[in-house]
Design a protein that fits this description.
Blueprint: H1 2-13, H2 18-34, H3 45-54, H4 60-78, H5 103-111, H6 116-128, H7 132-136, E1 143-144, E2 149-152, E3 161-164, H8 167-180, H9 197-207, H10 214-227, H11 232-239, H12 244-247, H13 250-253
Antiparallel strand pairs: 1-2, 2-3
Helix pairs in contact: 1-2, 1-4, 2-4, 5-6, 6-8, 6-10
Length: about 260
């Protein structure tokens, strides 16, 4: 549909991430199909509200994504004067504590991985708290080896940040490069320039825990960094959170002070 093309172009112009554009476009198209919208420009406020109130959702996160997709459609495509959805409230977030595993145990498992690519991918999640999207988009040019830093560019929310690399990770990445000699992206896929997020998730289930996801490594990093005495503001900057309030959840799952997991890998 031409309207979807215009919608995607507008979101790209507004610097939304490709992942957000893909998800929002999917839900917008789903809305058109489920409501049998013949002319998207004739959509009414009542129609959208009725759809949102009667649709079933698998999670609060999905509900928020659908509301976001339709709000941006109204704002950027139809224009504020033609359709107002500002009064539609988003549901309250589920107050679930993040799943956190034992940092030393995970570090030990990663240390024993023989495949250098798999080892490096998982080590970056645990040692630096990177998101899976940040790992697969990481380029060699993003590494500042003279200062032991990674420049994370255009991450969630379009934000850039700098993350510290300890000497162990620097050495691991050097060993990995000598073995694989990837050029642009640090981690290449088997048949593509980039490793995939789904492949990273499979590594976590294979080496760490069958019930875990890559994000668990990030949760574990943050929790044990806090337990090791790192202040919340520093952890928040490392994780790339927009607000320290988001990071505060890790104070609820931290239980004891342990050895810095960065040195355990």
């Amino acid at each position: 549909m031409n309207i979807l093309k215009i919608y995607k172009q507008k979101l790209r112009f507004k610097n939304y991430s490709e992942r957000t554009i893909k998800v929002y476009s999917h839900y917008l198209l789903e809305y058109f199909n489920m409501q049998k919208i013949a002319d998207p420009y004739q959509v009414t406020t009542a129609n959208i509200i009725n759809y949102l109130e009667n649709r079933s959702y698998t999670s609060v996160a999905q509900q928020n994504q659908i509301i976001g997709a339709l709000k941006l459609f109204a704002k950027y495509i139809l224009g504020k004067k033609q359709l107002h959805l500002n009064k539609i409230e988003r549901p309250k977030k589920e107050k679930k504590l993040p799943l956190v595993l034992d940092g030393n145990e995970i570090a030990s498992k990663i240390k024993n991985i023989l495949n250098l690519k798999h080892k490096a991918i998982l080590a970056l999640g645990l040692s630096c708290g990177l998101r899976v999207s940040e790992v697969i988009n990481l380029q060699w040019s993003d590494l500042d080896r003279s200062r032991n830093l990674i420049h994370i560019k255009n991450a969630k929310g379009g934000k850039d940040r700098v993350v510290f690399l300890n000497n162990t990770i620097i050495q691991l990445l050097a060993d990995y490069w000598r073995a694989y000699k990837s050029v642009k992206y640090v981690f290449n896929g088997q048949f593509s320039a980039q490793y995939t997020a789904s492949s990273c998730q499979k590594l976590v289930k294979k080496y760490i825990n069958k019930q875990a996801t890559y994000h668990v490594l990030r949760h574990t990093y943050a929790t044990f960094a806090h337990e090791n005495g790192t202040d919340i503001a520093t952890i928040s900057k490392t994780l790339g959170h927009s607000s320290v309030k988001t990071t505060m959840i890790y104070t609820r799952v931290a239980t004891s002070t342990i050895k810095n997991i960065k040195q355990a890998i």
